[in-house]
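Sharing a chain and its predicted structure for anyone who wants a worked example. Both blocks are below, sequence first, tokens second.
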Amino acid sequence: MRKLTTAIILATAGIVTTSAMAAPHDHNDMRHEHHAAYQDKKADWRPGQFAPKQYVSDRYKVDHRGYKKLHKPGRGQHWIKANGHYLLINDHNHKIIQVVR
């Protein structure tokens, strides 16, 4: 009798735990991590200014052929996108040559 009771209890416990494991996991821990690109909201780009160092990397370079507003950059120049603006930058001194909004 004792073995039968133990077997019934273990079988019931096994069924309960498997159904609990099959339930969907609702792990809504409200930690929404947003890793957006650096954006300086106050930036008012003007020709002659120096481009910030974080925008000088290849990460922000833009190919002019994909955008109608951008012309082909000259030798020693390239386009970057910063805060929704397109900046034509001098490769040597990193000065802004032209701003397209």
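Comments welcome. The radius of gyration is 30 Å.
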